[in-house]
Specification:
The protein has helices spanning about 5-10, 15-25, 50-60, 70-85, 100-110, 125-135, 150-160, 180-195, 255-265, 275-285, 290-310, 335-345, 370-385, and strands at about 35, 95, 115-120, 135-140, 165-170, 195-200, 230-235, 250, 315, 325-330, 350, 350-355, 360-365. By secondary structure, the chain is α/β, with parallel strands linked by helices. Helix 11 (about 290-310) runs parallel beside helix 13 (about 370-385). The protein binds pyridoxal-5'-phosphate. Pyridoxal-5'-phosphate (PLP) binds near residues 100, 237 and 243.
């Protein structure tokens, strides 16, 4: 049997694997605390249900157009106006089966073999593999000053004539860092100067605290969307607690969107028609579910920061968004897989090894579970490390 070179270069998603481990442990009755998760625990908004049920009852559930229904695209036009202040049309929008697919189809539309795609470390686990599947070379940059906030100088240090695109995810999975407006502006200007793509993965952009507001990258460009090299990625998974619905989208130049449509048309066909109806319901519905989620997450974040602060030697950049924190455990262990495994075996607390995000010695600890579980989980970790 011969597996392809690209196939062999891919690794299993560490986070999805962990979810499966947790399920198995819980089934065995083990008192697991899952601080490794990546989904809010709230319910999807009620506004998602009615139209889905109506269509389901007809029992005539058909294919969707490959890049989404006109109604779903109209919902994204509204979303883009509301949260980015940008006017776009249906031809600028591709609806996908999750932001993951939107990102993947966008990269497959622009990347040629050997093109480099840059993103900061720590990065979302899937970026390197999604870039590889598109035939590109994942290339990372880091803040020279050791912080989690790189500057345009750090980008320029790894930029080459082979760079095709830069991805920025703000707030960031796994660190919860919200990059500054100044950094986003400098990236927009730099990518326009160089004629490369800027992919803004904004999947968490409304899940921010401490007075931060979602940043619109379009603020920093004069270009028409059909002359723009900016592609924004978004979706319903995180902000509306709709991870299982699998609806995301990309907004960009119509030629790229059209290429994405062709890719999806051959690979998966259009996203599930029922779930597009649910996503439309979420976008037009009462938005208090998002504000409620944000205030819950901000409270959980405070609990986590307080509890982690009680562990001597653990360093943390307080997250301003998402539901993740990225804590530095190098005082105890450099090998993050070893540490996460040890913690799972001895305390039954699930964390994600930092190496999965490109940085060893760190653990990603989520705060989408209840405050009690966060307290209990971090207490177990602290007591274990004190004895070590
Ligand atoms: C940074 C980032 N981008 C994209 C996604 C994908 O989201 P979706 O569920 O819409 O595919 C995730 C999910 O964890 C993520 O963390």
């Amino acid at each position: 049997m011969k597996i392809s070179k690209i196939g062999k270069s891919l690794s299993e998603s560490v986070t999805l694997k962990l979810n499966a481990t947790v399920l198995a442990m819980r089934k065995n009755g083990e008192p697991v605390i899952h601080l490794g998760g990546g989904e809010p625990k709230s319910k999807a908004p009620a506004s998602t249900i009615k139209d889905v049920n109506e269509l389901l009852e007809t029992r005539k559930v058909r294919y969707s157009p490959a890049a989404g229904t006109p109604e779903m695209k109209d919902a994204v036009i509204k979303y883009t106006k509301d949260f980015y202040g940008k006017d776009v049309t249906r031809e600028n929008i591709a609806i996908s089966s999750g932001a993951k697919q939107a990102l993947s189809a966008a990269l497959q539309s622009i990347v040629d073999p050997g093109d480099e795609v840059l993103f900061p470390t720590p990065y979302w686990v899937s970026y390197p593999d999604i870039v590889k599947i598109a035939g590109g070379i994942p290339t990372t940059f880091e803040a020279a000053n050791g912080s989690l906030y790189p500057t345009i100088k750090d980008v320029k240090n790894v930029y080459t004539g082979n760079t095709k695109a830069i991805i920025l995810n703000s707030p960031n999975n796994p660190s919860g860092v919200v990059y500054s407006e100044e950094f986003v502006k400098s990236l927009v200007e730099f990518t326009e100067e160089e004629g490369v793509f800027l992919i803004m993965d904004d999947i968490y952009h409304r899940l921010i605290f401490d007075g931060y507001e979602p940043i619109s990258c379009y603020k920093f460009t004069e270009k028409d969307i059909n002359d723009s090299q900016i592609i924004t990625i978004n979706g319903v998974s995180k902000q509306y607690a709709m991870t299982g619905f699998r609806i995301g989208w990309a907004v960009g130049d119509k030629d790229i969107i059209n290429t994405m449509k062709n890719i999806q048309g051959h690979l998966t066909s259009g996203p599930n028609i029922l779930m597009q109806k649910a996503a439309i319901g979420a976008i037009y519905g009462d938005q208090s579910c998002v504000t409620d989620l944000v205030s819950q997450l901000a409270k959980n974040r405070d609990v986590l920061v307080e509890e982690l602060g009680k562990i001597d030697g653990v360093k943390l950049e307080s997250p301003h968004g998402t539901f993740y924190s990225f804590a530095d455990f190098r005082h105890y262990e450099q090998d993050s897989i070893k540490l996460a495994t040890e913690l799972l075996e001895n305390t039954k607390v699930v964390t994600v090894p930092g190496i999965a995000f490109g940085k060893d010695g760190f653990l990603r600890i989520s705060y989408c579970e209840s405050a009690e579980e966060i307290r209990e989980g971090i207490t177990r970790i602290r007591e274990y490390l004190m004895k070590k």
